[in-house]
Amino acid sequence: MILKVKVPSPGESINEVEISSWTVKNGEFVSKNQIIAELDSDKATLEITAEQSGIITILVEQGVKIPVGKIICTIDTSTNWPSPSAKKIINENRLIINNIKGSGKDGRITKKDCIDFMKKQSCNRSSIKRPLSSLRKKISDRLVSVKNQTAMLTTFNEVDMTEIILIRNQYNPSFQEKHEIKLGFMSFFTLASIRGLRLFPDVNAMISSNRENKINFNYFDSAILGMHKIMNRPIVIQKSIKIRPMMYLALSYDHRIIDGRESVGFLCSIKETLENPIQFLMKGNISNIPKILEL
Q: Is 116 a catalytic residue?
């Protein structure tokens, strides 16, 4: 059976990705749930795993931009599987199974076959040079620039996403019907960030080239807000332990401009807004939700 592997959607509003790297070689044996590729989008890096074990055939080269839904490789699941001990050696050493001649029953590859093959290859060592993806190049340049030009610190907080999830679950069907896209969490974080920036405008500031003035902008990258995975965790609410969907927040900022008061205050405002969305996003009236969501 030939299994086709397609590019999944990495998130809302993303229609194209780039293959940043293949973690396996063409013709290599891959195991079920093994990571076979990494895809870059404008927002994140996505790992692709093998749905079944078999021989992989790569159809799209590294560095190529492709639309969501395109087939990037196939996995032949009908190949004679190597023995468990042989499969372990193959995966650990990234051996191409088609290059190994099996001596077991019906041509099955054994542990000895793998060891003999590796002995023959040990005298032929080589290095592999792979180009960086466009996203990785940009990240590399920006990180070096930030390190040389700023004094970066990071402050953390956590937010209870219960109320936002309730609103999202209730209004997502009608939102998707009207706008033809799912109602994501990013919209709520954007509104919360706008409120936070109004309260702490220095988070959107920069230092002038002569380092004598602080300039406030409508838009500037003085800080980056990181939103981690939502996970159910026990927390204490009014002296009782409750299980709530919690998310860690991380604000990395330029300490030359932003002090602890602004960074902590900004994160606290994000937390306050998301935990009380009716009060701070809907002007205290639940009937404003359809208007805010443009339903």
A: no
